[in-house]
Amino acid sequence: MSTRRIKVIEVPSELGAGTRGSSLGPTALRFADMNKGRKKINKYLTARVGDLNYMLSHNTAYEDAKNIDSISQIINSIALEVEKTLSEGEFPLIFSGDHSNAAGSIAGIKNYYDDKRLGVIWIDAHADIHSPLTTPSGNVHGMPMAVSLGIDNRENAINEEDEATMEYWNELKYAGSKGISPKILPSDIVYIDIRDLERQEWEVIDNLNIEFYTPKEVKEIGIEKVAKETLEYLKNCDILYVSFDVDSLDPSVSVGTGTPYPEGLNLYEAKTLLYNLLRDPKTIALEITEINPLLDSENKMARAALEILEEVL
Fold first, then answer.
1. Is 141 considered catalytic here?
2. pLDDT at residue 40 tops 90
3. Other beta carbons less than 10 A from residue 214's beta carbon
4. Is 1 domain-assigned?
5. 155 phi and psi, to 5 degrees?
6. Is position 98 annotated as part of the catalytic site?
7. Mean per-residue pLDDT for 78-102?
8. Which of 69, 128, 152, 250 is flagged as catalytic?
9. Given pLDDT bands bounded at 50, 70 and 90, which one contains residue 2?
């Protein structure tokens, strides 16, 4: 990583989350860095994508994809900023509020590298592969992988289809300057440490034959082998994007995230995993997401994320 020109992209949008506070995550990371006095991340050039979080004070008209109208605008803004960063020969290091923003990151990468095969490594307690038809919560941070795959998962629908919602859903699928959908293939995804999924998500993962590692498998074979096997599995991809949701970490590290869940990664495993993934020259972007200091004490989650970044950057 030391030879790459890194540019930080801050995305404070939390429109897709069910709990308020993740918009403060990027700033919490910066404060953790300043408090250490090392300026590991504050030294980098930074771009900030605007947010529409004020819309959270209004009632949403889209119960099965809350705030999807505003999220569509944000996703396109993220995509354009990521495209711009890549066009300038820089490595996007994205600090985002909630995980719905990753749909914009993936859109930006694919629209810039439209002729390349994109692999996605999704490190998360959750699969985030719901659609407005399958979601039990309506929170769009549980949907970015379905957006990027361009799927609706109608076979497992539990919600009535709403025409207006699905119009915005299709806008999300085609986000980016070139309107590409799908942006990724099921064969080009690896989930790591997923453990808190609904039946509808397991069904689509099984039907699409998506590769994944559960916590049990991580412990059995070791995190180094997980990283090695992941890169081998994605060897036919031209470029890789790594998305790290901090709820992949065990709650013993910190509960400063909207949806913590037991049996997560410890700090050593997270550092080792990201270090090995980022050493691969095909890895062209990293996203850190879902830090929520309002659910934390002493900024523990941001400090943990910073400790991981210090190891891998």
1. yes
2. no
3. 14
4. no
5. -60, -25
6. no
7. 99
8. 128
9. low
pLDDT digits (tens, 9 = 90+) for 226-266: 999 999 999 999 999 999 999 999 999 999 999 999 999 99
Q: Strand runs (DSSP E) across the chain, as ranges?
A: 6-11, 45-48, 91-96, 118-123, 189-192, 211-213, 239-245, 283-289
Residue entry with tokens 């050493």: 279
Q: What is the pLDDT of residues 140-180, one digit of tens each?
A: 999 999 999 999 999 999 999 999 999 999 999 999 999 99
Contacts of 206 (CB under 8 A, 6+ apart): none
Is residue 167 assigned to a domain?
yes
- Is 115 an active-site residue? no
Residues 139 and 17 sit within 8 Å (Cβ to Cβ): yes
Q: 237 lies in a domain?
A: yes
* DSSP 8-class letter at 10: E
Residue 305's H or E segment, with its range, is helix 300-312
* Token pair of 276 as six digits: 């090995």
Q: Which range of residues forms the domain containing residue 109?
A: 6-312
Opening angle at CA 311, ends 197 and 35, nearest 5: 95
CATH number at residue 252: 3.40.800.10
Q: Which of 69, 90, 99, 198 is labelled catalytic? A: 99
Q: Which of 124, 171, 250, 296 is catalytic?
A: 124
Q: Is residue 53 part of a domain?
A: yes
Contacts of 35 (CB under 8 A, 6+ apart): 299
Active site residue 196: no
256 Cα distance to chain centroid: 16
Look up 10 and say whether it is catalytic: no
Q: Enumerate the β-bridge partners of residue 211.
A: 190
Q: How many CB atoms lie within 10 A of CB 236?
A: 9
If one counts the domains in the chain, the total is 1
For 30-109, strand residue ranges (E) read: 45-48, 91-96
